[in-house]
Amino acid sequence: HVALMDGEDPSLVDVAESAFRAARSRPVLRIHPALSAHWSDVPGWASVLDSFSSSAEEWGIEEWREALRELRSRLDDSDPRCRTVSDLLSLGFTVQAYPNGSGVVFAGRRRLPSVWFTPALDEGDDSLSRIDDRQPVPLDDHIEHVHDVLEEFLARLPLERWRSALEAAVLLHDIGKADERFQALLLGQDRTTSWLHAGMSGRARPLAKSEGLPLSPGERALAGRRAGVPQGFRHEMLSLQLAECAEESPLPSDEWARDLALHLVSAHHGHARPFAPVALDRDPPRVEVEIRPAGRVIKAALEGRWRCTHPPHRPNSGIAERFWRLVRQHGWWGLAYLEAVVRLADQLASARESSCAYSRSAGAASSEDDGVQS
How many Å apart are CA 247 and CA 18, to the nearest integer? Predict the structure, then answer.
């Protein structure tokens, strides 16, 4: 669940069970005090909540099966909650206590039969950095586009208390693309050619997207080797490291908001939950970024030697600890909800860029005469 402002109705934003069923084709059922509005019509709901919460560490599977049967007996056969409980009993289930012990979650062990489910829009690779258009998208333009979409979301969602963290996350989420090897990958070139062409064309602005990025995973792997991008490299992990050491950035001063912003940066393609992918980067270059998206100044740099000795996947990077701190603060779905806001803002902005919904800045991209592939 997502913690709400005083007076806000959780039914306006909480559709976890139906969303999980549609996306994963599995039943899930949450018993938690924050969901009392959804269960107030069930006879004896308070006693159900109390017994489920207090027995999370004591009951075995048979006790839980009996408890679910008892809960089902209190529901009408036409009630969707009754169907969920029946699905859990027929498919088998796991049960886990909330991090703070205030409730439990039941999840089906097997998929529901013959249920269509939605494929992922973002597989966690860099395919969203490709744009089906002749002109590349500069990094600062893309960040502004994502920021604009976030503003649209915040006008409709009860997330004002997390605005500073969400804004910082979208402003910082892609700055790791400034790595010269990633820039070469975006252009479908090797590092030397990319560097020479950038100098010849006067292109000083790093790119976020280009049609030079191949479509298939195999072609991307080949292009990555040509550009010198190490296997497993994640631009968002470099974004995180640049954000952590930035000379100037929009990171909030509040510790919890800063933690959330940094996690949202590292998790915006589905990683860092809790670990960063392993990438053996034996000779990383110095990376420097200075951009001004949405009127904010972002200035950061990392030396290659420091990057070599501080890979994001190292156990003491702080990424895993930050994830679990935020899970304890926001809950499983609360944190996932906030992650989804950033991921969907990025995806929607990318879709609009691909459909030419944004006008490109003059001089943002080079023509074929400049020698830069677009």
Answer: 44
